[in-house]
Amino acid sequence: MPRRTDINSILIIGAGPIIIGQACEFDYSGTQAAKALKEEGYRIILVNSNPATIMTDPDIADRTYIEPITLEYVSEIIKKEKPDAILPTVGGQTALNQAIELYKEGVLEKYNVELLGAQIDSIEKAEDREKFKKAMDQVSIDTAKGNFVYSWEEAKNLLDEINFPVIIRPSFTLGGTGGSVAYNFEDFQGLVENGIYLSPINEILIEESLIGWKEYELEVVRDKSDNVIIICSIENIDPMGVHTGDSITVAPAMTLSDKEYQKMRNWAIKCLQTIGVETGGSNVQFAVDPDSGRMIIIEMNPRVSRSSALASKATGFPIAKIAAKLAIGYTLDELPNDITGQTLAAFEPTIDYIVTKVPRFDFEKFPSASGHLGVQMQSVGEVMAIGRTFRESIQKAFRSLEVGLDGLEPKWAFEDDPDLIRARSFDLTSLRFATSFRLLKIREAFLSGKTIEEVYDTTKIDMWFLHQIKMLCNQKYDAPLLELKENGFSDFQIARNTQTPVDKIRSMRIKKKILPSYKLVDTCSAEFKAKTPYCYSTYDHENEIKPIEGKKVIILGGGPNRIGQGIEFDYCCVQAVFGLKELGYKTIMVNCNPETVSTDFDLVDRLYFEPVTFEDVMSIIDFENPDGVLVQFGGQTPLKISNQLSKAGASIIGTSPINIDVAEDREKFGKILNKLNISCPIYGTGKSLEEVVSVADRIGYPVLARPSYVLGGRAMEIVYSQDQLIDYISRSADVTSGHPILIDQFLENAFEFDVDALCDGEEVHVGAIMQHIEEAGIHSGDSACVLPPYQIKSETIIEIEKITALLAIELNVVGLINIQFAYKHDNLFVLEVNPRASRTVPFVSKSTNVPLAKIASQLSVGKKLKEYDLTRWDAINHIAIKEAVLPFNKFPAESIFLSPEMKSTGEVMGISDTFGLSFYKAILSAGIELPEEGEIFISVIDEDKFKIISIARGFVELGFKIIATEGTFKELKKNGIQSNTVYKVGEGRPNIVDRIKNNKINLVVNTPLGEQSRYDEEAIGKACIQKGIMAITTISAAEAVLHAIRTRNKIKVKSIQEYHSS
To answer: pTM, whole model, 2 decimals?
Structure first.
């Protein structure tokens, strides 16, 4: 069936910000879909609130709206653009939920817009667990025993039919939010009530526990002619009870019998037909009881999912692209396979290698988290590795994680001493709970003499996987070097276990010609020749590729997403590819993150899906011999290995690793600041308790303290007194081992600014100056920032631009530089300089229409700034605001007070002609509903009392009632502002937390005490998280929220292209 000609324009709804449960896989799928539909001649309109995405680049769609993905705003876009159809299946749960809302509110009917890929009936059947259960029952597909409830009474009555433990799953939530396991009646009520509250339709499914069952997924694609293909099977190593996003997974499935696989395949096809998924990709999840063999279907997603991105990268089959083409009328037997060029998309991929996905966790950022994995997703990113065996694949995956591991092996001292191993008794109960590194503990269990049967009884991880891990444990390091490499052992592992310098292992390998060979991911197990080179390394004797000919540059990607390094850096890597291709260079990408656009095999001339470690990258450089290697776009990941690469002979282009190091080394950098007569906060270092206390006394409190050698991501902290400093040292830093603690003067209540600039070694172009809404002391990644600045003298802007130019030239920057400034009492201080891509580059590029990363890549290969016609950053006529998205709903016991330690998972952007409306859009996009009326609780510290007066008056003028603690109440009363008092937590009942829990409070303004967040603030913050109430913790943010509420009803939408042309 040819493409449809009765539609001309299609609206693609994006997934919004990166959150736990919905990451950048939807930038990959949305970008693929937009490009696929655009090449078919359709006019593409796109809405997404996330500026850090490639899909929101102005040249991906014809009209790009960086607007909140809400009913009001999407309706306004539909009214203005009049699309013929909407594709809701490539924007995750966000897009599906939005499509349902548009349908229910009559917007689709009013503007005569149809849905492509999935109809409302099939979305509801798949998403509404009750309808899904009924549909499966009708076609005799087994589901778990259980039922839906809407109240505590119904939940209690259901316990007559099923026994503890039971699984509680709220309907229509992302990443299993609110999902839990109740083991007893005492816990049951709280978990039920929380689940009902978190479900947007107040519905939960309570069903029999399947904990210990094996879990599988099939990635399925269907077209309108009912052709159905299975892209790949995926097996979770962790049994049921761990969210599939948090489980280590393997493709293809390793432990299914052919009979089980065929049954699963038949059920998956029947499931898609029954649910009515018209076209596109779907993910179907199964559970199998290892004892009885009973199989059930858990759920299906009628859209492209996290697993679709994994399946696409695992097989080379571009699911999102094909799904988009199927949605406009094509069938699978009409579409070519891009990789082979000879087969059709209707051929099921076959693979002759093993893919392992390992999730990345950042529990050290959230001390309240137990670290135990469950049915609610907690991982912040993932890596994927490809090998010829499971052992090779899993070792490569673990060394890709960037958590200090160089394989499936911890760096623990007891392994070096056989007597210690014998003396150490391993407690098997520590394996009972799934944790982020349970496989390392299993390895330890085997080394301490535990049997496979004992470990299986405790973990229920299939014995096949346990045998593989035991084989790695039993590996002798005096075996031939080739054998070790075939089993995935890195040079570092071999060096450590043979007590040989790692350089010696590398040179020995090269001398013996034990080098990696590169194989192709080709969808067909080498049956046909691959046109699109997408490669992985292994150790055998046949290379399936030759080095690329012509001018070529290797770009190193950012590895797994994590807090502090996310999709922004992937955006920069992709922009670098665009820039180099424009100049005629062949581009080679090295990365290990399956969620990203950078690992899309049709982006570059060659993709190496490999760990971004020195060994793996240097092997590729030795093989390809590129003209240059770019390290400044992938965040800290490539920078960490840039010196090693340079010493080994790699040609690092752009800013040299030496100059990057100078900026990171505070002593060397301090000399540069002195030479240029630039101010920075007073600093010092100490290696002992006495030294640290003496440095802090000399500088004067408050100070910012941080370990120079950070273990487990332990936090920086603002310290207000000597007692607090001593407490900090005892908690956070191991001074006894000689690692210094860094102490900086903390500029309290200073304004903070961020600058992104370009430099070619001779000239500097300032990309933008942004002002943070929150004062200094909050990590720049967690602070909202405004472009252009909202409160700054013109001479300060000139001074910031002058210092930026001086530093960029002095550091001999070629490419991007980011500088953070603080401004206090008419003095400007440089806080930090990063001569590389920063997380604000995508935001600045979208706001100013200057593709900074793309230009930086071209400067790296010799272009000069004078060859570009770049407009000044402040020539824009709009205001753009970047707001952080925080994951506190996943960690409800966490303190909500922001600090120098970054905690946000993603970002959104609000853009309009006024500050208030831009901030309102940003807040709305971050998932926070601002109240129109009601009660506002205000409690501020003494130094904020004067500043809160005008803000409180503003809220009263808008019709809000104020409730305050005693001190704040008195201050407001003196200034003629009507308010009522409320008890603090320890003063009596009912107190402020009671009022929040009783739904009496609509907004909280609570600035924390300087020395430490007291019990009061902690209790208020946690209650706000539970009730979904916005808690504002700085005066500047309170002022911004007041502006936002004033403009909330002015719904205006304008595309990025319109902003750029005005």
So the answer is: 0.91
